[in-house]
Amino acid sequence: MTVESIVFYLFATLTVIGAIGVITIRNAVQAVLCLVLTFFSAAVLWMLLEAEFLAVTLVLVYVGAVMVLFLFVVMMLDVDYASLKAGFTKYLPLGIITALAMFGGIYWVIRSEVFGLDKVPEPAKHGPEYSNVTELGSVLYTNYFFAFEVAGVILLVAIIAAISLTFRGRRDRRGQSVPTQQQTSKEERLRIVDIEIGPRQDGRDKIEKKKKSKRKTKGGKS
C-alpha cells in the first residue's frame, strides 16, 4: 500500500466520521466543528486528485467564512430545544420516507453495474508544470463563458433581493411621498379649521391678578 492510499483512506474515514457527527451530535457548536472537520478532510481528498484550487477554495470560503459565521450565529442564538422536540413525532413519517428515498438513490448509484470502478476512469497524472488554476480558468472562460456570466447575474439578483427584503429603513426618518403629492386636489392642499375661543383658564386669571396687584403696590410706594 502506497503513502497516497494511506492518506486517502485516513482522510476518507475522517470525512465519514465528521459527517456522521454532524447529524448525530445534539450540541450545535460541536456539530459545526464536526462539519469543519469534514470540509478539511474533503479538501485533502481534492488535493490528492490534483484539484488544489478547489481544495483551497473549500477551506477559505466554507471553513474560513461560512462555518465561522454559522458558529457565531449558533453560539449567539438561544435555541429552545423543547419546542423543537415538540413537533418531532408530527413530521417523523415524512422524515422516514425522505430518508428511505435518499438511501435508495445512494444504493442505486453505488451499485457496481451503474457506478462501479470500471465505469469511472482513473484520474490522469500530471507533471509539475500542470496548473489546476490555469486549466479551470480556461474551461470556465471559454467553454462555459455564458453559463458563468448567467450565474454571476443570478447571484447579483439574489444579493439585491436579500438586501431589499431585510432593509426596513429608519422608523423616525421623515420624507415626502411624491405620488401622494401629485394625486392630491386643490381642496386637499388647503384646509381651513375653525378654532373656538373658550374661557380663560383659572391659572391665567390668577397670574393676571398678581400682576395687577404688584403694579398697584409699586404705584402706591412711588
TrEMBL record:
For membrane topology, the record states: Multi-pass membrane protein
Q: Which UniProt keywords apply?
A: Cell membrane, Membrane, NAD, Quinone, Transmembrane, Transmembrane helix, Ubiquinone
Q: Name one GO cellular component term.
A: plasma membrane
Bias kind Basic and acidic residues: ranges? 185-208
UniProt key word DNA damage: no
Q: Which residues cross the membrane?
A: 6-25, 32-49, 55-79, 91-110, 144-167
> Quick one: where's region Disordered?
174-222
In short, the EC number is 7.1.1.-
Catalytic activity as recorded in UniProt: a quinone + NADH + 5 H(+)(in) = a quinol + NAD(+) + 4 H(+)(out)
Q: Which InterPro entries match?
A: NADH_UbQ/plastoQ_OxRdtase_su6, Nuo/plastoQ_OxRdtase_6_NuoJ
Q: Where in the cell is it found?
A: Cell membrane
Main subcellular location: membrane
Q: Give the compositionally biased regions (Basic residues).
A: 209-222
Kindly list the GO molecular function terms attached to this UniProt entry. Answer: NADH dehydrogenase (ubiquinone) activity; quinone binding
Could you tell me which NCBIfam families the record lists for this protein?
PRK06638.1-4 (NF005164)
Q: What does this protein do?
A: NDH-1 shuttles electrons from NADH, via FMN and iron-sulfur (Fe-S) centers, to quinones in the respiratory chain. Couples the redox reaction to proton translocation (for every two electrons transferred, four hydrogen ions are translocated across the cytoplasmic membrane), and thus conserves the redox energy in a proton gradient.
The family assignment reads: Belongs to the complex I subunit 6 family.
Assembly, per entry: Composed of 13 different subunits. Subunits NuoA, H, J, K, L, M, N constitute the membrane sector of the complex.
Record protein name field:
NADH-quinone oxidoreductase subunit J
